[in-house]
Structure formats: structure tokens, C-alpha cells
Write a structure and sequence with these properties.
mainly alpha; single chain; 0% strand; 83% helix
């Protein structure tokens, strides 16, 4: 019974991961297609901290 439950939750997580991965790839492709400059390491760090704060404050 626990094995079946674990398998179902694993499939659900895998679908969610795949969805997020495809969405992220699409966003990166869009950014490159439009010719926008890639963010610097400093900008990535700033945006990562902002996103993490937004996620974990809720």
C-alpha cells in the first residue's frame, strides 16, 4: 500500500517538475530570441534572493 502511495506521489512530483522545467526553458528561449542581455551574477543573486523571499514569506 505504501509503495503504491509513494509511486503516485512520485509521478505527481515528476509531472510538476517537468512542467516547471519546460516553462523555464520556454522563458529562457524567449529572452534569447528577443535579444535581451543575460543577467550578471550579481543580478542573478539579487533576483534569487527576491524570489526566495517572496516564496517563503507566504
Amino acid at each position: 500500500m505504501m509503495t503504491i502511495l509513494f509511486a503516485i506521489t512520485s509521478v505527481i512530483c515528476a509531472i510538476g517538475w517537468l512542467n516547471r522545467y519546460v516553462s523555464t526553458c520556454a522563458l529562457v528561449y524567449y529572452i534569447e530570441k528577443k535579444g535581451y542581455t543575460q543577467p550578471s551574477d550579481e543580478e542573478l543573486k539579487e533576483c534569487t534572493l527576491w524570489a526566495a523571499g517572496k516564496i517563503f514569506k507566504k
